Amino acid sequence: MSCGLLIAAALLVTDPSVADAHAGHAAAATAPAAPPSVATEPLFANIVSRSETLRAIVDGWMEAAAAPDAGEFAAFKAQTVELAARDMEGHVDLRERGVDGDLKCILKGIAEDMPLKVAAVEGAADDAARQSALSELRYLLNDNVEVITSPPTPAA
Question: Rounded to an integer, what distance in angstroms lies between the CA atom of residue 11 and that of residue 4?
Answer without folding.
Answer: 11
